[in-house]
Amino acid sequence: MQGPWEEREGVLCYRTGGGVELYRLPVRLFPELDGYVYLVLADSHRILVDTGSGLPESQADLIRGFEVVRDRYRRPVGFEDLTAILITHGHIDHFGGLNFVRQRSAAPVFIHELDRRVLANFPERLITVAREIRGFLSHAGVSPQRQSVLLSMYLDMKTMFQSTPVEGCLDDGQRLFGFIEVHHTPGHCPGQICLRIDEILLTSDHILAHTTPHQAPERITRYTGLGHYLDSLRRIAALPGIALAFGGHEEPILDLYGRVAAIERFHRQRLERVLEICREPRTIAEISWALFGRQYGYGVLLALLEAGAHVEYLYDRGYLQVENLDQLEQDPNAPVRYRRL
Ligand SMILES: [Zn+2]
Ligand SMILES: [Zn+2]
């Protein structure tokens, strides 16, 4: 893809109007997921934004990215030169490589306070969220056997990260190091942040060039959910003068405002579709099936969560009602059936 940047051996470099150098290092995160780590150079600041997943191929790509910046761009920056590590949100594909980086760098780690405990106590987050997911799956009409399979897949992540202390917080409206503006954009993740540097915005997983970022119901984790997400989209749309955006995955976004409008439209259409499906009483599992068809492996859980986020949004705002109140009164474990009002 062509744009107002340079690209050498897969590492893209963009210089902002204020003279900040941004390097985008490509990393393989998981077998089916690629993404980017960013290196920001300004005056004496050497800032790493995200760390990759921590899997061996992700670590190898990170090392290679630094080598390209050193050899092809003539900027000799090593892990030991980093002055700060910023984590854009508490998802493993963005922070899983933190232990690897910390073995090589004494730089302080920053994350939004709503995701701080993900880093500081990773098993706690996984185990407490798993409990909430179990409640959600039962509500959604997923059988107990299936619930156990899905939850064990989720808890498999437990061995992927060793908890680590956090030195600093990224707060909404903060001007970090005098040149990075922090915007808190909860929805995809509670502590999701976007970072503005001059005319560019690092959107992480809040806004991606092609994929509509994944949503889950707020009943599982506070500050997620479609309501927060759509509010956060509007907050970004109201920021003037963003010429270019870089996501945590996929290509740079040349028209950020157009992309925000397209994602909003996409969710409005999906909400309409859920209302359509709920002309007859439906469980979330049935709605997920009607929206996404058969899914496999972890995709089953992602589809249920996405459907659940849309149902929750509509129910909270009075567009859906619970159809089987009598049954729920008798049996607290019965799945909830929703019907369009
Ligand atoms: Zn994410
Ligand atoms: Zn991601």
UniProtKB/TrEMBL annotation:
It holds the Pfam family Lactamase_B. Residues 34-249 form the Metallo-beta-lactamase domain. PANTHER family: ENDORIBONUCLEASE LACTB2, METALLO-BETA-LACTAMASE SUPERFAMILY POTEIN. Transmembrane segments: none annotated. It comes from the Bacteria. InterPro entries: Metallo-B-lactamas, RibonucZ/Hydroxyglut_hydro, Sec-metab_biosynth-thioest. It comes from Thermoflexus hugenholtzii JAD2. This is Glyoxylase, beta-lactamase superfamily II.
